[in-house]
């Protein structure tokens, strides 16, 4: 609601202007105190593995990979005495196999780090997630808008979070069925023309039905794809995961979203310091980042084919691809024909060679190879050519 | 024969008669001496040293004159007659032995007592029958003769009695009959002066006897009246507008109000000045000009609201003809909601706030509209790139009743539709405002004024949410003069501000959200001239508030929205005040004021109570009491002291000091950096205490070149208690227990404001520099959240250095050019301290609040006004304004923000007017 307000104002003002209102900004270097512990993950109360990832914060200008917190002892603890230790999988990841939780029990996360600090969360109750009624879509505002629909008969859920995974099929710019290896044409063993790419959602998507008389979510906007999106080139699929949240968890995410996403308007909220439900037991002054939750997942997948959509011109990202023909029959030195580095063979082509390499007119039919860059030929540079199990 | 010569003849004969009369009654000093070829100056020095005579003359007229004369015990008039014989020099001598030398024209000092048969005091009949010939020709000469005429005030007595008497009356414009506000009346010996009030009335107490009363006002020709004061009486004066200075000597006297008045921390702007300042969309904008004054800041350009001396935006009382305006802007703050054609002047009080005003902590911005022309119909208007406006005015009953009506609207809607970009042309934005002002003169002692005001904004984004807000005001004022000493004004008013947000895109979630403030007020203000050294103002006021803090209702039958209505609030805010402006000595004047305000929070309302000493949380309320209609739920009251003093160090220098205490019972809740159109207002209640502000201010004022240049240095220190801050991520609208989201904070602000102003002349304008700080602290142990470890931190509008230059140069009578330059430190922001990865995306962790700053701000604007020809008789006068806003095209940062995009953190700088913006506006008058 605020984003369009801003762009609208810009638009109004930019009636005369050509420049943009927003430009990148590099903040002055700020040296943060030492890395704070970041806790990311939840206890899965449904079916499936629980994951907790431990890491440290970095300075804004730091471009190195995230520093993982290793060799910590991590476990879930119930308020009725149950205890589930997690297994360290390396790189700061700690996991627990699917377990059956007691709905009446509350759970918390406890961590002992290798530097001797002890952390714990508040106790969190188990909350069931109602199933997704449907994932729907509409063609509007010059693109495809995807929605989530759900409800809770018991009027008990009220706060929801969604994540999604998008998968789409695409093809590279040029289909190559043969390969040119050691000056020999050989059939390609692998299809490198048709691929799939999967991307998870990164934004916080939360919704609430508290303003309604019933616990119903209708057409909650999840994702908007502009009409020229590469994702809509052939076939698109989205897997939507839904989680029921507690009120506290919802409010935490809402603040996190306000702090880090919906910014750049005329009426920005003041960024706030965010406190989750975790604390350092051994040093109460230490700040711990993250929120521990007990969540159950519901999911639904839909497919949308190109034929279901208007005839949109898609920007594939391969627009800049060009092919070229090289002579493979009469190379400068016989027997040395090859394809330049970084290029791939597309097909053979017969053409009339007008000049020889000395510049004499020859007008001789010649066999050439049509080639293009690997990025334009091999779709695996952007995704995978292994068809996902769920693909239909 | 031309009238002028006839007049001179007449005056000369009068003069002779006068002198004859004078000689009989006064003991004339005699002159003796032997002057041989001395300069006139030496002659004057000699005479002045030996006799009580004092000469007034222009040395340019007399520098060629050599005096060779031998006299023995001769009266001065005989000597001078002999001396000036055959030269074009004239002289006059008045009762106080002052000698006036003039060239080509005679100065008349006095008319004989009893010259007129007419016994009515202060009659406006022209003094000489000959003047009737002049009738409507050459009005300025009539004025000149009016200035020379002797007015007898009060019942004539044979001789002047001891003591003082009071003259009162009204000063009006000779052209339109409108009262002239703030005109200065004074006599020089002894130095006594007053200014006219809001209705152009004045009252001045002078020693009985003969005086020359001078009257000055900006934009009007200076004039004077010769008066013979016998007893209390009345004198109305008409001033002529200063259209164009023709062949006439303009006597530039000290317009030195800034030095002589007790009032400090006040800025006055007339509409002429406001119109000269370049603005972004070419239309004169009151609030944008107010922003250029020292001590006034804003969070960012194009943002709604302003901050005065470290106060929040809701701490400004904005009065449009005495009616409170809650949202003074159009289109998110790009335009102010006041039509420049209606406005007469603007006054901003930053300190030394008169006891008459109260209810806000930081400032009072008084915007006064003009009265309509009482004599003829006229109109004016303008066409700009975004807005158009039209104003009509004229008499309803000639010389008695007049109206002025103005309307303004935008065609931005139409512009948007022309855009090819789909995301804009589906939106819409429009606003308009309408003003109506009627003034009626019942009789000399009773005047009625009615003002109606409506402003409306609507904007829609895409096909989705529709926003709208509206200000509605009506006031009726009755000004009544009881007698020469006591005048009064009774005002009844009503203000309403409301906004609504609605969406019907998704039928299930279609809603209507609305908010409304209603305010009805009654007040009576009296002004009593106790003695010439005491001027007492007193009055009483009461305000009734009714707030609908938010209602969220389903729209359409398919909507599942559950109605959510926050209980209405009501309260009564009353005040009593008295202040005395007391001239202790010619050097020292003080204004001692006391205002006592009383606030009652009224039922019906359900009020939750919380345990004392621990943070208020939604879950921990211990009791809820249901109050019924008429219950007094909570009462706050307290004194507000208003003291100011002026000490004149010399004629052109003075030192002033003031102390103010203010109480505020109405607060705006906003946790965005700039005012957003969906911010709400809240009354003080059981949990939200009134904000209390204290300010001490000291200033030094000095005028140079007889007031041609005014300079001032003011410093202030201010504290604010019960300042409102909010918990992180607090939701303010539709919150049934807002007290649980409010944090009690306190503020302090201090600064120095330096200003150099050249109010008139070919080159005019001002230059100001401000150093100021505005700091907040939230360290109440009962707060649920501690901000910045309970230490002071800079507020959002803490911009320590601020420099402004506003200049205007008149090349000739048709072309003038304005230049505006402004620099300020960037406003504070909160920057991220660290980044981390969560849920597959990078997030940021913020540092302490407001510890960093966005880049410094600077901007230069130019404008050129081109007037049409200056023929007085033509169909319409027109002018063009061409302006370029942000000439250098600097991309000033409005904000800097960091956002998580596709999983990684990106920093952006947002600028609003990142390019030079040229505009053309056509203005006309008929």
TrEMBL record, chain A:
Superkingdom as given in the UniProt entry: Bacteria
Protein name: DUF4249 domain-containing protein
Source species of the chain: Rhodocytophaga aerolata
Organismal lineage: Bacteria, Pseudomonadati, Bacteroidota, Cytophagia, Cytophagales
TrEMBL record, chain B:
rRNA processing among keywords: no
Entry keyword set: Cell outer membrane, Membrane, Receptor, Signal, Transmembrane, Transmembrane beta strand, Transport
Subcellular location field: Cell outer membrane
Pfam families: CarbopepD_reg_2, Plug
Signal peptide span: 1-20
Membrane topology: Multi-pass membrane protein
Residue ranges constituting the TonB-dependent receptor plug domain according to the UniProt record: 283-360
PANTHER family found in the cross-reference section: HEMOGLOBIN AND HEMOGLOBIN-HAPTOGLOBIN-BINDING PROTEIN 1-RELATED, TONB-DEPENDENT OUTER MEMBRANE RECEPTOR
Protein name: TonB-dependent receptor
Organism encoding this protein: Rhodocytophaga aerolata
């Amino acid at each position: 609601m605020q984003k369009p307000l801003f762009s609208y104002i810009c638009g109004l003002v930019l009636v005369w202007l050509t420049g943009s209102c927003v430009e990148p900004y590099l903040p002055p270097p700020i040296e943060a105190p030492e890395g704070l512990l970041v806790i990311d993950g939840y206890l899965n109360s449904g079916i499936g593995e629980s994951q907790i990832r431990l890491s440290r914060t970095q300075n804004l200008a730091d471009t190195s990979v995230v520093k993982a917190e290793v060799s910590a002892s991590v476990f879930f603890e119930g308020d009725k005495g149950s205890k589930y230790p997690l297994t360290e999988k390396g790189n700061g990841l700690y996991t627990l196999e699917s377990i059956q939780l007691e709905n009446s029990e509350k759970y918390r996360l406890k961590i002992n780090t290798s530097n001797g600090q002890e952390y714990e969360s508040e106790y969190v109750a188990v909350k069931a997630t109602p199933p997704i009624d449907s994932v729907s879509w509409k063609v509007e505002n010059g693109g495809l808008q995807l929605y989530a629909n759900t409800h809770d008969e018991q009027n008990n859920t009220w706060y929801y979070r969604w994540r999604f995974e998008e998968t789409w099929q695409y093809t590279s710019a040029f289909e190559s069925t043969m390969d040119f290896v050691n000056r020999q044409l050989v059939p390609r063993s692998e299809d490198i023309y048709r691929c799939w790419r999967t991307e998870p959602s990164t934004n916080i998507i939360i919704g609430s039905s508290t303003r309604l008389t019933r616990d119903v979510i209708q057409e909650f906007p999840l994702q908007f794809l502009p009409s020229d999106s590469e994702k809509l080139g052939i076939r698109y699929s989205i897997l939507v995961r839904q989680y029921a949240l507690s009120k506290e968890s919802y409010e935490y995410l809402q603040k996190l979203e306000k702090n880090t996403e919906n910014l750049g308007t005329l009426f920005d909220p003041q960024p706030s310091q965010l406190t989750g439900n975790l604390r350092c037991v051994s040093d109460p002054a230490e700040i711990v980042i993250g929120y521990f939750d007990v969540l159950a997942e519901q999911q639904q997948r839909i497919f949308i084919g190109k034929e279901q959509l208007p005839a949109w011109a898609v920007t594939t990202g391969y627009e800049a691809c060009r092919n070229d023909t090289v002579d493979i029959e009469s190379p400068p030195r016989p027997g040395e024909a090859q394809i330049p580095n970084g290029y791939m063979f597309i097909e053979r082509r017969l053409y009339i060679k007008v000049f020889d390499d000395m510049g004499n007119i020859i007008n001789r039919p010649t066999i050439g190879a049509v080639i293009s860059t690997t990025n334009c030929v091999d779709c695996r540079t952007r995704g995978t050519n292994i068809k996902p199990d769920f693909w239909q | 024969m031309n009238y002028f010569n006839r007049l001179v003849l007449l005056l000369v004969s009068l003069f002779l008669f006068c002198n004859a009369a004078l000689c009989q009654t006064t003991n004339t000093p005699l002159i003796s001496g032997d002057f041989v070829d001395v300069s006139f100056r030496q002659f004057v020095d000699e005479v002045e040293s030996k006799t009580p005579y004092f000469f007034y003359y222009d040395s340019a007229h007399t520098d060629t004159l050599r005096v060779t004369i031998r006299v023995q015990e001769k009266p001065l008039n005989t000597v001078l007659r002999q001396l000036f014989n055959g030269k074009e020099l004239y002289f006059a001598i008045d009762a106080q032995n002052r000698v006036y030398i003039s060239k080509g024209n005679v100065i008349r000092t006095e008319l004989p007592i009893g010259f007129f048969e007419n016994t009515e005091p202060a009659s406006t009949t022209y003094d000489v029958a000959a003047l009737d010939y002049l009738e409507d020709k050459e009005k300025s000469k009539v004025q000149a003769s009016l200035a020379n005429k002797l007015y007898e005030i009060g019942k004539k007595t044979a001789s002047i009695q001891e003591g003082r008497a009071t003259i009162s009356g009204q000063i009006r414009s000779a052209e339109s009959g409108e009262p002239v506000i703030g005109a200065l009346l004074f006599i020089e010996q002894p130095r006594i002066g007053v200014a006219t009030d809001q209705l152009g009335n004045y009252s001045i107490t002078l020693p009985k006897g003969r005086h020359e009363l001078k009257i000055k006002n900006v934009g009007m020709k200076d004039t004077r009246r010769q008066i013979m004061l016998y007893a209390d009486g009345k004198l109305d004066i008409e001033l002529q507008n200063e259209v164009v200075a023709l062949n006439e000597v303009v006597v530039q006297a000290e317009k030195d109000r800034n030095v002589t008045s007790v009032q400090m921390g006040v800025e006055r702007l007339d509409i002429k000045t406001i119109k000269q300042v370049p603005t972004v969309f070419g239309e004169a904008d009151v609030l944008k000009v107010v922003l250029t004054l020292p001590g006034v800041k804003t969070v960012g350009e194009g943002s709604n609201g302003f901050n005065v001396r470290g106060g929040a935006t809701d701490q400004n009382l904005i009065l449009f003809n005495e009616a409170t305006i809650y949202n003074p802007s159009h289109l998110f703050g790009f335009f102010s909601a006041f039509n420049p054609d209606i406005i007469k002047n603007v006054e901003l009080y930053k300190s030394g706030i008169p006891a008459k005003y109260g209810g806000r902590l930081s400032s009072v911005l008084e915007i006064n509209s003009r009265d309509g022309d009482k004599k003829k119909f006229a109109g004016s208007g303008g066409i700009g790139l975004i807005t158009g406006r039209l104003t009509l005015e004229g008499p309803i009953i000639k010389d008695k009743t007049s109206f002025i009506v103005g309307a303004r609207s935008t065609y931005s809607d139409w512009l948007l539709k022309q855009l090819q970009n789909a995301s804009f042309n589906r939106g819409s934005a429009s606003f308009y405002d309408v003003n109506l002002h009627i003034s009626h003169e019942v009789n000399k002692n009773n005047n009625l004024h009615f003002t109606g005001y409506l402003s409306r904004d609507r904007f829609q984004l895409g096909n989705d949410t529709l926003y709208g807000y509206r200000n509605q005001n009506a006031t009726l004022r009755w000004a009544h003069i009881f007698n020469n000493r006591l005048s009064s004004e009774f005002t009844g008013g009503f203000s309403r501000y409301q906004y609504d947000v609605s969406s019907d895109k998704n039928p299930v979630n279609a809603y209507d959200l609305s908010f409304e403030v209603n305010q009805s007020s009654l007040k009576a203000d009296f002004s009593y001239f106790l003695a010439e050294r005491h001027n007492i103002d007193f009055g009483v006021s009461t305000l009734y508030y009714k707030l609908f803090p938010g209602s969220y209702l389903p729209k359409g039958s398919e909507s599942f929205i559950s109605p959510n209505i926050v209980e209405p609030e009501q309260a009564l805010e009353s005040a009593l005040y008295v202040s005395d402006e007391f001239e202790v000595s010619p050097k020292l004047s003080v204004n001692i004021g006391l205002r006592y305000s009383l606030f009652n929070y009224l039922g019906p309302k359900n009020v939750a109570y919380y345990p004392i000493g621990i943070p208020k949380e939604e879950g921990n309320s211990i009791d809820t009491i249901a109050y019924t209609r008429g219950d007094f739920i909570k009462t706050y009251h307290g004194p507000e002291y208003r003291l100011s003093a002026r000490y004149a160090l010399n004629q052109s220098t003075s030192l002033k000091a003031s102390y103010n205490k203010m109480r505020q019972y109405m607060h705006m809740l906003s946790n965005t950096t700039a005012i957003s159109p969906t911010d709400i207002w809240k009354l003080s209640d059981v949990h939200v205490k009134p904000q209390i502000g204290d300010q001490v201010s000291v200033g030094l004022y000095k005028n140079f070149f007889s007031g041609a240049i005014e300079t001032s240095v003011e410093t202030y220190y201010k504290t604010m208690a019960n300042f409102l801050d909010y918990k992180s991520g607090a939701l303010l609208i539709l919150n049934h227990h807002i007290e649980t989201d409010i944090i009690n904070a306190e503020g302090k602000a201090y600064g120095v404001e330096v200003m150099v102003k050249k109010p008139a002349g070919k080159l005019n304008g001002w230059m100001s520099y401000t150093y100021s700080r505005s700091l907040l602290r939230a360290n109440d142990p009962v707060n649920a959240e501690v901000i910045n470890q309970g230490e002071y931190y800079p507020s959002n509008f803490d911009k320590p250095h601020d420099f402004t230059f506003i200049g205007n140069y008149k090349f000739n009578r048709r072309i003038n050019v304005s230049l505006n330059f402004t620099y300020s430190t960037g406003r504070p922001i909160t920057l991220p301290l660290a980044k981390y990865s969560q849920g597959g995306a990078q997030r940021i962790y913020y540092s302490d609040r407001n510890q960093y700053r966005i880049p410094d701000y600077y901007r230069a604007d130019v404008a050129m006004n081109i007037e049409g020809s200056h023929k007085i008789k033509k169909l319409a006068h027109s002018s063009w304004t061409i302006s370029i806003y942000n000439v250098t095209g600097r991309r000033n940062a409005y904000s800097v923000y960091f956002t998580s995009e596709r999983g990684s953190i990106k920093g952006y700088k947002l600028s609003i007017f990142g390019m030079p913006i040229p505009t053309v506006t056509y203005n006309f008058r008929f």
